[in-house]
Amino acid sequence: MQFMLLFSRQGKLRLQKWYVPLSDKEKKKITRELVQTVLARKPKMCSFLEWRDLKIVYKRYASLYFCCAVEDQDNELITLEIIHRYVELLDKYFGSVCELDIIFNFEKAYFILDEFLLGGEVQETSKKNVLKAIEQADLLQEEAETPRSVLEEIGLT
Amino acid sequence: MSDIVEKTLTALPGLFLQNQLTGGAAAAKAPFSSRLGGLVRGITALTSKHEEEKLIQQELSSLKVTVAAPTTTLKMMKECMVRLIYCEMLGYDASFGYIHAIKLAQQGNLLEKRVGYLAVSLFLHENHELLLLLVNTVVKDLQSTNLIEVCMALTVVSQIFPREMIPAVLPLIEDKLQHSKEIIRRKAVLALYKFHLIAPNQVQHIHIKFRKALCDRDVGVMAASLHIYLRMIKENSSSYKDLTGSFVTILKQVVGGKLPVDFNYHSVPAPWLQIQLLRILGLLGKDDQRTSELMYDVLDESLRRAELNHNVTYAILFECVHTIYSIYPKSELLEKAARCIGKFVLSPKINLKYLGLKALTYVIQQDPSLALQHQMTIIECLDHPDPIIKRETLELLYRITNAQNITVIVQKMLEYLHQSKEEYIIVNLVGKIAELAEKYAPDNAWFIQTMNAVFSVGGDVMQPDIPNNFLRLLAEGFDDETEDQQLRLYAVQSYLNLLDVENAFYPQRFLQVMSWVLGEYAYLLDKETPEEVIAKLYKLLMNSAISSETRAWLIAAVTKLMPQAHSSTIVETLIQEFTVSLDTCMRQHAFELKHLRENVELMKNVLPVDKSCEGMVVDASLSFLDGFVAEELNHGAAPYKPHHQRQEEKLAQEKVLNFEPYGLSFSSSGFTGRQSPAGISLGSDTSGNSAETGLKETNSLKLEGIKKLWGKEGYLPKKENTATDEVEAQPISQDSVIMENVDQIITKRDQPPALTQSKEEKAKQLLASSLFVGLGSESTINLLGKADTISHKFRRKPKVKEIKSGEITSAHTMASSSFNSLSNEEDYYLDTLQDRGDKELKKLSFNSELLDSESFTELHMVEKLSNCNLSASSLFADNNLEIFHPSQSTAVSVANEVSLASSLLEEPTEHMHSDLMEVCNNETISVSSYKIWKNDCLLMVWSVANKSGSELKNAMLEITSEENLKVTEQVECCLPIIEAESTKNFQCSVQMEQPFTEGILSGIINYQMMDSHSVQLEFSVALSLLDFIRPLKISTEDFGKLWLSFANDVKQNIKMSESQAALPSALKTLQQKLRLHIVDIIGNEGLLACQLLPSIPCLLHFRVHADGLALWFRSSCSTLPDYLLYQCQKVMGES
């Protein structure tokens, strides 16, 4: 996979993950062009797009578009399932996920993505294992967080 | 599940309000990011883009202050980082925070570190210079006893890591392969996969450990190792054939549901794993019957098991079909796969239909009957509202095009072309149409009209080789001279008509094509006089919308037409107009035109009618300027620096920090080496500013055959020779009748109201019959099978020219005549012959004492680079342009003179040497030099000539060198007396101490005149790396051994057009221009070897793939591969 973008129906970027080294300028250009093209497509149309020399696979979940760029010889259908599995993971983690969860906790969404896809390849397909990894990290996070926030509340920091 | 998501998400607007009021689930989960929450809400509340920008800029400047403040705690820093990521996602520059992200990853506690690492991976790319600062942190975390820290470090390494720092972490990561936790092992494998992608040789030694990972008891680790295997097998499948059994067993287990249920996805067992394995099997079984037989069973089972009606089963089915068509065919499986494709094509789901079409495009050449089976669906898809479906259908039609259905298919493509706006699509489609038109055009008129459409639509975005090829086609013609003339005449007439249209707009490239054709072939016209044509060109010239490049083409055309015109008032005005033009280029052209007009004889020589294909003798080395150059240099002008040297210097200036571990590296930047989504090959812009140069460019479009992505060559049964005649005999007139009907019907269809349903159906039927003509079950195979070979209507003429060379020794003549008789066909044969010729020459040279067999046979390939004067090598000149070596004979005579004059010199003539070049002179003395490329060193010969009538005293020649050059064996170069009008020679051998691209050897000559005042002259000679490169003759075994023993390597992909990248031509270029020795050729891979004098070997492995060359250099010297790669890119770029 070359990159993954999440954007809203209004064209606002919600998440971006680039697996190929590109300059910021190029990233912006690609994002702009793709968001425009995908949003212009009608609902009944095919989920795949040929764009430059890449294949774009996108799917809309409510107000959010999930959009992946893969190489031409990659399997489009399984890419579609990658998107779906990611949504499932988000859903399980946040408990019926909505766009706001992703907006306000986008770093969590990134953590989940990094446990699922690494360097553009599927790292772990077992839902249980992915979530286990995230929870372990989160657990430490909470341990570290609790005493601090207490301190903070009483104004000691 | 997805339904739930959908529902939740649709209720979003309401939820949003709720969230704001109650804090909501989302906000509650993240108390620490409340400031982010504030920012997000703030932005959402805004209405205009301008306000948003203001808010973010405010936010950014406050963040900038916060992150820089010493009082900021790491916890606050973490929170700032999140907001920075958010701002950057919205498209604002937050680069001031990058360094703080690295610090956070370094200093923070676990959760701060986590955010720090995340920010780093989002902010930076793998070539970012700040990334180096992360290396220490990563090393520390990899050694941590805390699992989470190790995980985080591995995660970041698998995403971005500086290539040159890999050795720092590699042993640590290798250790992790034995870690007790599977998550660590899995991530370690993926980190190594990343390393394999960016620096394959660095992980080569751990291949054995990959095998262990493949056998890991944890499914996740095993699955991760498949990524590496897929990549390695893609690069070279033959070394992994022994693993086929293992992959088959794993796939069997997966398909049989033997994995833990966790890995099920919608009750399908581990689909990702299945697909990965199917891909690997497809690569392993390609062209290999024995390996393929191992997998038939499991493929059959996969097909059978994938019956659930869910997207993911279709994904597996699709991959299965792909694999079945890739490996050695088995009819039973093929049948099942074909049925499967049918399921896709006929599916009402649009995604599946698309994939069905995609599968068809791949398999259609193997199995054309499938196209017939689905012809009605294909016709429907041709008018599908979704342009993607339409496009895929056209792609399919493109692959079944033959001489009979070309007109209909091209018409459909043109229709689509007129509707598209996206540049990439236009470029792509225009190329295809041009290719088909060249191959199958039914007649001249159609061809020219189609190309007109191509040029008007494709215009200035298309690949430059389309117009170049077209012009070459016109110019070179075919076998039939009258046919050629008719085609040219038709083109001329059609362009004149186009130019008559008022207010018509044509792209610049099209106008350039027109002006070239009019300039060359307007003489064929009966009615219109050259004056009229010139008048039209003049009108265009005065048009302000014309680019200056096109103007140059136009004026070149006028120049060509001028001798044919009787009166030339327009030309006169034109000259007057442009001699005062502000455009210097135009002014130059106008002056040339003026001078040519005054000198009719010269004009006829320079611009002969209809001789565009004849080679012109050109003094390519511009030797007539040597005197001028020397004079200018003497007067203190700066010496000429070649393009690459200038770039190098520029680069050295621009680069503030050099992160490369050694020297200057021209390779290895991940940007170029790896595919990026923006990496559209733009092709080289070859349009020169004169028609002549434009024509000589021979970047050819994919002319031969259509790329087969799927399937096995030679699968098509080849027994149909008997059937051929029948098919050929089928009356074509019948088809054309159908086509005419269809055309009418299509035009009728444009008037919608009058048509009834049944008529539409009929129209489709008719369209089908015209589209799929020639695909009938019996006739198909041979029609398609030989389509690529037979019906190239516009076939290229062989390019190789006969050699006319007078002064060849008898041995040469024999050799070259044997070449000629054999090699008059195509470049390809030439290449295969090279070896044979090589041997032949060897044999001959044994007989002939004239030749030094060793040095000659090896070096005679190195022709162009060296302007060598062994005439046999001009055989390998594949240019139309014959290069004339002006100083050839003089060099020989000088060389002879040299050897006679000075007994100190070894006979230089038996080695290759360069032309004699004057390096400095004044009125009394002249110093010239030439290089002799001896097998063991570079010999510089200096010849000092006293031009004056009196003798010179105490002459002294001193050669100094740059630090990386060493001058040895310097002979006595102090001469008490140089007699009047005599020449003295000196020689010295030069060694390269350290590789470089270009070095300077400078010298001083001192002498005293009769009147005893002393004169000193300085001079310098440029030496290139290639002067020190010699072929290294080793066997394949030795190559293998050396290869493994070398630590320094460089890998690079070079994008090239298909024809350029063909193995033979690439090999030839490397052999000739870089003096590489071809060790072996295996399939589409080549092994080459050379050495840098005195004895630093360098090996090159290269492989040809679809869109370029994969080069891989290895050497014992760390910098040599980089320099060679650079040279290689240069010569490949030139060729």
UniProtKB/TrEMBL annotation, chain A:
Q: How does it sit in the membrane?
A: Peripheral membrane protein
**Domain of life from the UniProt record:** Eukaryota
The record's InterPro entries line, in alphabetical order, gives: AP1_sigma, AP_complex_ssu, AP_mu_sigma_su, Clathrin_sm-chain_CS, Longin-like_dom_sf
Subunit structure, briefly?
Adaptor protein complex 1 (AP-1) is a heterotetramer composed of two large adaptins (gamma-type subunit AP1G1 and beta-type subunit AP1B1), a medium adaptin (mu-type subunit AP1M1 or AP1M2) and a small adaptin (sigma-type subunit AP1S1 or AP1S2 or AP1S3). Binds to MUC1.
Family designation? Belongs to the adaptor complexes small subunit family.
Q: What does this protein do?
A: Subunit of clathrin-associated adaptor protein complex 1 that plays a role in protein sorting in the late-Golgi/trans-Golgi network (TGN) and/or endosomes. The AP complexes mediate both the recruitment of clathrin to membranes and the recognition of sorting signals within the cytosolic tails of transmembrane cargo molecules.
Q: Under which name does UniProt file this protein?
A: AP complex subunit sigma
Q: What is the native source organism of this protein?
A: Chrysochloris asiatica
* Gene of this entry: AP1S2
UniProtKB/TrEMBL annotation, chain B:
- Gene3D superfamilies (alphabetical): Leucine-rich Repeat Variant (1.25.10.10)
One GO cellular component term:
AP-4 adaptor complex
Q: Where does the record place it? A: Golgi apparatus, trans-Golgi network membrane
Choose any GO biological process term that the UniProt entry carries and state it.
Answer: intracellular protein transport
Highest taxon listed in the record's lineage? Eukaryota
Transmembrane segments annotated in the record for this chain: none
Ranges for domain AP-4 complex subunit epsilon-1 C-terminal come to 1030-1133
Keywords from UniProt, A to Z, are: Golgi apparatus, Membrane, Phosphoprotein, Protein transport, Transport
Topology within the bilayer: Peripheral membrane protein
Record's keyword annotation contains Metal-binding: no
The protein's assembly and partners:
Adaptor protein complex 4 (AP-4) is a heterotetramer composed of two large adaptins, a medium adaptin and a small adaptin. Adaptor protein complex 4 (AP-4) is a heterotetramer composed of two large adaptins (epsilon-type subunit AP4E1 and beta-type subunit AP4B1), a medium adaptin (mu-type subunit AP4M1) and a small adaptin (sigma-type AP4S1). Interacts with TEPSIN. Interacts with GRIA2; probably indirect it mediates the somatodendritic localization of GRIA2 in neurons.
Q: What does this protein do?
A: Component of the adaptor protein complex 4 (AP-4). Adaptor protein complexes are vesicle coat components involved both in vesicle formation and cargo selection. They control the vesicular transport of proteins in different trafficking pathways. AP-4 forms a non clathrin-associated coat on vesicles departing the trans-Golgi network (TGN) and may be involved in the targeting of proteins from the trans-Golgi network (TGN) to the endosomal-lysosomal system.
For this chain, the family text in UniProt reads: Belongs to the adaptor complexes large subunit family.
Name of the protein this chain belongs to: AP-4 complex subunit epsilon
Q: Which organism is it from?
A: Chrysochloris asiatica
